[in-house]
Amino acid sequence: QVQLVESGGGLVQAGGSLRLSCVASGRIFFRNAAMGWYRQAPGKQRELVASLTFGRSANYADSVRGRFTISRDNTQNTVYLQMKSLKPEDTAVYYCNAEVLGSDYWGQGTQVTVSS
Q1: SS3 state of residue 11
Q2: Which residues are CB-neighbours of 28 under 8 A, at least 6 positions away?
Q3: Starting at the edge strand that comes first in sequence, how are the strands of the sheet with 2-7 ordered?
Q4: 34 CB contacts (<8 Å, ≥6 apart)?
Q5: Residue pLDDT, tens place only, 33-48
């Protein structure tokens, strides 16, 4: 089993910044795991925000490219999502995802609310 715990969400004004963190534990060789951030707004489907796989460039949704940055610290089993220039449409529950040996694992989610 793999456990993912997100933190860092909150309420921020438009134009502000937040950094989300996700710590992975359990049966995971973190360095090789594909890690990603997804979000789900009320009434909408969950969508990929950013992903980072060992040996590959980061991948971003068009809506966040240039504003969000995904990074990872393999020594801390942690993946981050730095969010800048936040917009009200970024409001959602943000989920950390790990793909390990073909299985997907999810965190419990952290709420990000951007006020206008």
Answers
A1: strand
A2: 2, 77, 98, 100, 105
A3: 2-7, 18-26, 78-83, 68-73
A4: 51, 52, 53, 54, 98, 99
A5: 899 999 999 999 999 9
